[in-house]
Amino acid sequence: MNRHTAREKAFQVLFQLDSNDMEIKQAMESFLPEREQEDIFLRTLIEGVASNKDEIDTLIKDNLERWSFNRIATVERTILRIATYELKYIEDIPENVSINEAVELGNKYGDEKSGKFINGVLSKIMK
């Protein structure tokens, strides 16, 4: 699977983890076919975001302007977590790729302002 698809699948699993009381393994088994569960990049994103969630959330909170973290919709919060994880923990992905992919996910799954909001927060995180 390509990285774009892996990000989208990771978003779906992490969204479910944030919305429901599930374990990572249970969420992956529920939402991914068995062959997709073995994808290294996909597993890295899901497990990395889940295991570093507190640090990632703090970084996002520290870079919000006129927003509280609790006001961010689950869609945007999940996408921000994935992109922040990539930016801070995966060295071989160019920053602009992570940001562009996050904006695309926001435009696809969020509302008309999601992509712009995600871009603004991630740009601040990168400063």
UniProtKB/TrEMBL annotation:
The gene is nusB. This is Transcription antitermination protein NusB. Pfam families: NusB. It comes from Oceanobacillus piezotolerans. GO terms for cellular component: cytosol. Involved in transcription antitermination. Required for transcription of ribosomal RNA (rRNA) genes. Binds specifically to the boxA antiterminator sequence of the ribosomal RNA (rrn) operons. GO terms for molecular function: RNA binding. Residues 4-127 form the NusB/RsmB/TIM44 domain. NCBIfam families: nusB. Transmembrane segments: none annotated. One of its GO terms (biological process) is DNA-templated transcription termination. It comes from the Bacteria. InterPro entries: NusB-like_sf (IPR035926), NusB_fam (IPR011605), NusB_RsmB_TIM44 (IPR006027). Keywords: RNA-binding, Transcription, Transcription antitermination, Transcription regulation. Belongs to the NusB family.
